[in-house]
Design a protein that fits this description.
mainly alpha, 3-stranded antiparallel sheet, 7 helices, 3 strands, 8% strand, globular
Length: 192
């Protein structure tokens, strides 16, 4: 069983056992795959103006398609209610946002190679961001929209009683939420 993250003299430490680490690494991989699929849309044609090739920015004439997967839309939300402003912001920043998220998720995967995690504040923050991305995807898949939805998911705590894919996903969501909560508590303790 996982042990809560704590702030101490060596940094922020926590323990995740092999089955938990394997599960979380797989979740990180799933989110990376979602993000990388979207990133492929940002690849520019070879015959593009060299200025765009140099900067990696998309020309205004090359609109990005809307995000169809609601879980991916939670990871890469619109920056504005104004559709034109949101599309422009997405065109200019989405590729960088995807790269940052994928980088944090890959770093988090590497951190899970050992049972005991020892993190400085910056690494703990990036690990928390990676966990939060997974949590957002799971929340969307579980259709958590209200306090009642959250309470329904929170009731699933005993793995021996899980019978449906939704209950299993709820159990995983609760694990990720608990790990993230203890990590954030340790980070806040490190700041005080």
């Amino acid at each position: 069983m996982a042990k809560a993250f704590k702030n101490g003299s060596k940094g922020i430490t926590g323990t995740l056992h092999s089955a938990e680490r394997k599960l979380i690494r797989e979740l990180f991989s799933d989110v990376i795959e979602m993000l990388e699929e979207r990133a492929r849309l940002h690849q520019l044609p070879e015959d593009i103006d060299p200025l765009y090739a140099l900067t990696g920015m998309r020309p205004e004439s090359m609109d990005l398609p809307p995000i169809a997967d609601p879980a991916l839309a939670r990871l890469l939300p619109d920056a504005s209610d104004d559709a034109v402003a949101a599309a422009e912001h997405r065109r200019l920043t989405e590729a960088d946002s995807i790269a940052q998220k994928v980088g944090r998720l890959r770093e988090a995967q590497l951190l899970l190679e050992t049972e005991k995690l020892v993190l400085d504040k910056d690494a703990a923050t990036r690990f928390a961001q990676a966990l939060n991305d997974v949590r957002l995807v799971l929340a969307e898949r579980l259709q958590i929209r209200s306090e009642e939805d959250s309470a329904r998911v929170a009731e699933v705590l005993d793995a021996s009683e899980v019978e449906t894919p939704e209950e299993y996903m709820s159990l995983v969501y609760n694990l990720i939420s608990w790990v993230l909560d203890t990590l954030m508590g340790a980070l806040m303790d490190a700041e005080s």
